[in-house]
Amino acid sequence: MQGGVYNRRSLASLVMAPVISTSGLTKRYGQTIGLDGLDLEVTEGEVHGFLGPNGSGKTTTIRILLGLIRADGGEATLFGRDPWSDATDLHRRLAYVPGDVTLWPNLTGGEVIDLLGRMRGGLDTVKRDALLERFDLDPRKKGRTYSKGNRQKVALVAALASNVELLILDEPTAGLDPLMEAEFRACVAEDRNEGRTVLLASHILAEVEALCDRVSIVRAGRTVESGTLGVIRGVHDLRIDDHQVDLEVDSDQIGEVLTHLTRLGVVNLASHPPTLEELFMRHYRDET
Amino acid sequence: MKTLVGTGHLIRLIARRDRFRLPVWIVVLALLVIGTASAFIELYPSEAERLVLANTIVSNPAIVGFLGPLYDTSFGGLTAWRVGVIGSVLVGIMAALTMIRHTRQEEETGRRELLGATVVGRNAPLTASLIVTVAAGLSIGAFCAAGLIGLGLPRSGSVAFGLGFAAVTAVFAGFSGLAAQMTPGAGSAKGIAVGIVGASFLIRLAGDGGASSGLGWLSWLSPIGWFTRLRPFADERWPVLALSVGLTLLATSGAFWLAGRRDVGAGVVQPRLGPASASPSLRSPFGLAWRLHRSSLLGWSVGLSFIGAVYGSLAESVRGFLGDNPQLREIFEQLGGEAGITEAYFATAMGILALIATAYAVRSALRPRVEEESLRADPILATATPRIRWAGSHLVFALLGPVLILAVAGMVAGFVYGLNIGDVGGQVPRVVEAAMIQIPAVWVVVGVAVVLFGIAPRYSDAIWGVLVAFFLLGQLGRILQFPQWALNLSPFSHVPALPADELTVTPLVVLAFLAVVLLATGLVGFQRRDVDG
Fold it and tell me: Taking CB atoms and an 8 Å cutoff, what residues of chain A touch B384?
């Protein structure tokens, strides 16, 4: 089975069929600019990290992809189709976890999970029960009595229990405790192994680093960097300080840099791979 | 007093949040009162004219029941009678909405905790809400009194009128504060608070309408009845105000007592566990809409059936009023004799029921907007649910709910009346028909609500202003001699007054067609616009 999945994934990456594709997406809200030419490409079978500071346009992009709002300009396709006009059909193939989960005060969590699943076109009840167990969620409580984290779990179970091709997750672990966050990561990893595509908007860099094949970083409604984590890690931030040199370097250029350095006589050398945090901070520092 | 720390800050916060809301209430209510008084002065300057008007009023128990008894035919007396009960209901609703908005709703949204963690005493939010609400009531009273005195009406009557509104506000603010402690949800707390206002109106309706059959004492059980019994401009009974003050203190202390004994966010009524999985019926947008609308549909049906029963039981006594008034007898002979007057009575009664049912319809029509604003629309619309189906599931209740409510209320009214005169089989269909005929007009108002929702969602709440305008046009338009074109603005003015009038189908078809056009326009607008986030 593992092999089959592998084949499917490598085939997918060969064809590079984009599940999500946007180019030059723009959206205005009155005076403020929501999106300012956003490009995003998510290929089948990948877990795609969607990073950006608060208000950078992640949720706006997701709501355009869900056909809840219409873009002012640019192109967006979902499974090769128009997310606005084909919304209903497309929604059979995806599940969505909003960043801000509000539940109906007088419906129980279990009822909400079943309702959303059925309206999506079907629910795997075995999977549902397993997920309730894993996330340690009591489905009998009324919506108004859940804490923020538990409301989040209701939305997560509702999405993860459906056998859809695409998961769109908008900061899904906000409010989850570390145990539940680990459980969430395990679930997403399993989904990826089953060949599912995931768009994961997140602030939690460790989570993105652990889960995502590729990431897109947005700032002020525009994509500033996109690619695999390996590619994104480039040469930057050279600082020469008396007898000390600090720099960040691409892995394929390490040899060349070392050649130059050894000629100068190296006394001490410390090296570590850049964390996603360093990449992320590099892009955001410019903002302020 | 430590529990009251921060009350001043909270008062300023509430005043800031409601800086448009409360002034609108105050101005509208003051204008309603002052406008009515000045219209009476202009239109009925002579005592003789006012007596004729008074006679037609007193002869229709539907009107006396709805608006309370007329104690005096002076300008002030007529004004107090005409807008006293309506105004009391409106200030009561204002008090209920303002109180819940700043107490229980703040807890439900979690903002209360944000504030509670700052230097704010346990009782400060409730105290601040009470102070602001009562201050709003006092402002309404002060503007009304000043306006009436300005028109040259007696000073004591004007002051009594103003204090009467303030007293009604205070009582309902106290009860709403109590309701805010009871339930875990803001929605149900609001329901209880507004329900108390409605119940006070109904008890008084039964008392005033049934005064001739010895039910008059019921009005003494209602804070709205107390306004009437204060008798502004008719030899004021000042001690009645003490009743309001006493009950306010009682309800307020009850609210503080409960508030001190429960957790923030929790109610006196403890939440219970529910089913772990959804029943088979909860599988579609309609299944969800049914869950969200069913209890309010039931509540409104029961409430309007009660009003229907009161109207039905009063109908027989209508005929008695004819005996001692030869002029009126003549008028009603032309309408078809004794049968004519009960028919005119039922036409009035069903018109009033229809307006109340429209409030339900508007509330249901705005439900999709509520869902959208609270972000609960997003997850539903992200499933394979077309937008129109989602909105339509709610609109089913806005369109068919009033049909059910009016049918049941009409049936109850006809049944009670039929029992009294021994003609159940004959009266039920007649009264039900008189109720059903109102439906196209109700649908037009729903249509306007849907247009706002679809095209200008941020202004959806303006539909309440439209409904109040239609209500006032119907209630005050004729007596204040508004021009015909203004009266025609209200869809309800085009409904034939069954069972008194002939059934003319044309206006109903036109209204229904207009409703369809409005609904379609609104839904197309919603289909094309962004879902607010």
Answer: 88-89, 91-92, 119-121
Structure tokens at B400: 């068919």
Do residue B385 and residue A69 have CB atoms under 8 angstroms apart? no
The secondary structure element, H or E, covering residue B170 is helix B155-182
- Interface contact B373, partner A, CB < 8 A: no
ipTM: 0.78
Render pLDDT for B139-167 as a digit per residue (tens, 0 to 9).
Answer: 999 999 999 999 999 999 999 999 999 99
Distance CA B386, CA A87 (A): 8
Q: How many angstroms separate the first and last alpha carbons of chain A? A: 49
The per-residue b/e assignment along B20-56, b for 16 or more CB within 10 angstroms, e otherwise, is eebeebbebbbebbbbbbbbbbeebeeeeebeebbee
C-alpha distance from residue A132 to each of A150, A156, A161 (Å): 11, 10, 10
Q: Do B273 and A115 touch (CB under 8 A)?
A: no
How many pairs of residues across A and B have Cβ atoms under 8 Å apart?
125
Q: What is the pLDDT of residue B480?
A: 76
Q: Chain A: residue nearest B529 by CA?
A: A69
How would residue A266 be classed by pLDDT, with cut points 50, 70 and 90? Answer: confident
B505 CB within 8 Å of a chain A CB = no
CA distance A24 to A194: 31
CB atoms A140 and B273 under 8 Å: yes
What pLDDT is stored for residue A6 in this prediction? 41
CB interface of B with A, residues 169-188, below 8 Å: 184-185, 187
Could you report the per-residue pLDDT of B280-294, keeping only the tens digit for each? 888 899 999 999 999
Which tokens in the block code for residue B61? 């128990």
**Residue B156 one-letter amino acid:** S
Structure tokens that stand for A87 in this block: 């919304």
Query: What is the distance in angstroms between the Cα of A109 and the nearest Cα belonging to chain B?
Result: 7
The number of angstroms, rounded, from the C-alpha of B130 to the middle of its chain's C-alpha atoms is: 21
Please report the beta strands in B237-306, taking only residues with DSSP state E, as ranges in sequence order.
none
What pLDDT digit, counting tens, does each position of A98-118 carry?
988 999 988 999 999 999 999
Tell me whether B386 touches chain A (CB under 8 Å): yes
- Residues with Cβ within 8 Å of B372's Cβ and at least 6 positions away in sequence, in order, are B457, B531, B532
Q: Chain A: residue nearest B107 by CA?
A: A144
- For residue B413, what are its two tokens? 């009214």
Residue B499: asked if its preceding bond is cis (omega within 30°), the reply is: yes
**Residues 6 or more apart in contact with residue A216 via CB below 8 angstroms:** A39, A40, A41, A48, A49, A50, A51, A223, A225, A226
- B275 to A91: CB separation less than 8 angstroms, yes or no: no
A46 secondary structure, DSSP code: -
Q: Which of A35, A65, A112, A144 to mutate to test the interface with B (most CBs of B within 10 A)?
A: A144
Contacts with B, A 68-97, CB within 8 Å: 68-70, 87-89, 91-92, 94-96
Alpha-carbon span B119 to B121, nearest angstrom: 7
Of B187, B379, B383, nearest to A98 by CB-CB distance is: B379
Q: Which residues of chain A does B272 touch, with a Cβ-Cβ cutoff of 8 Å?
A: 142
**Residue A275: phi, psi to the nearest 5?**
-85, 160
Q: What's the residue count for chain A? A: 288
DSSP B122: T
- Residue B339 makes CB contacts below 8 A (sequence gap 6+) with none
User: Mind telling me how many Å the CA of B122 is from chain A's nearest CA?
Assistant: 21
Residue ranges in chain A assigned as alpha helix (H): 2-15, 58-65, 87-91, 109-120, 125-134, 148-160, 178-193, 205-211, 229-232, 254-264, 276-285
